[in-house]
Amino acid sequence: MRATRPASINGIEFDVLINQTTTYEADIPEYPTEKGYSVEDTIILKPLLIDLTIFLTDTPVTWAKRFGKNRNRVKAVTEELKRLYFNKQPVTFTTSEGTWKNMGIVSITIPKTAETGYACEIPIKLKQIRVTEAKTVAIQASYGKSGATGANAGTISSKNATNSTNKSEQKKDSKKAASILYGLADSAKLFG
């Protein structure tokens, strides 16, 4: 499919989108599930990942009329990409095939090689940011109470982990709780 417009991130346009790989991934539980039960709630979808490689040049060919000739274009675009990265704000990635919003820049690699000269081939990794929305729901007062009595749903009480029982009582209690066999032996008066 021929591109009808240059690929861009937040309006920063690139000469060529060399490749784009979109990854859909999920965490699936390792434990077995009983037959007949739904597993939809246990499969956790991970954010969408997009790996792309773009190409920039100071002397564009494909979009020459659009970009013109600018001896500092590669430097200007790489500086803009770094600014987006360090701002830590969601970006929008657009190609002629689609638009992906709420993307975070995971990494940008800006190489400088003698082979490419005044051009630059830049790998970029994007990850989709999940945006949720809180909702407030009104619950009827009758649902705020428990059971037929209409009492409050309950309270929690806590107990100190340490108590003031002396050590000999603790030892005796631990022996009693130690086994059923101790209970049987104690009832037969085998221990003094």
**Percent in strands:** 25-35%
The CATH C-level class name of the largest domain = Mainly Beta
Number of domains: 2
Radius of gyration: 33 Å
Mean pLDDT over the residues: 78
Total beta strands:
9
Order of strands across the main sheet = 2-1-7-8-9-6-3
Low-confidence stretches: 161-170
Class computed from helices, strands and strand pairing: alpha+beta
What multimeric state do the chains show? Answer: single chain
The CATH level-2 architecture of the largest domain is identified as Beta Barrel
What string gives the helices and strands in order? EEEEEEHHEEEHH
Helix content: 10-25%
Biased composition (Low complexity): 157-167
Protein name: Dit-like phage tail protein N-terminal domain-containing protein
InterPro entries: Dit-like_N
Region (Disordered): 152-175
What does this protein look like?
The structure is a single chain. Helix 3 packs across helix 4. The protein starts with 7 loop residues before the first strand and ends in a 5-residue tail after the last helix. The chain is elongated and about 100 Å long. Helix content is 20%, strand content 27%. It contains 4 helices and 9 strands, in the order ββββββααβββαα. The protein has 2 domains: 112 residues, Elongation Factor Tu (Ef-tu), domain 3; 28 residues, no CATH class. Strand 7 and strand 8 form a beta hairpin. The strands form 2 sheets. It has a 7-stranded antiparallel sheet, covered by helices on one side. By secondary structure, it is of the alpha+beta class.
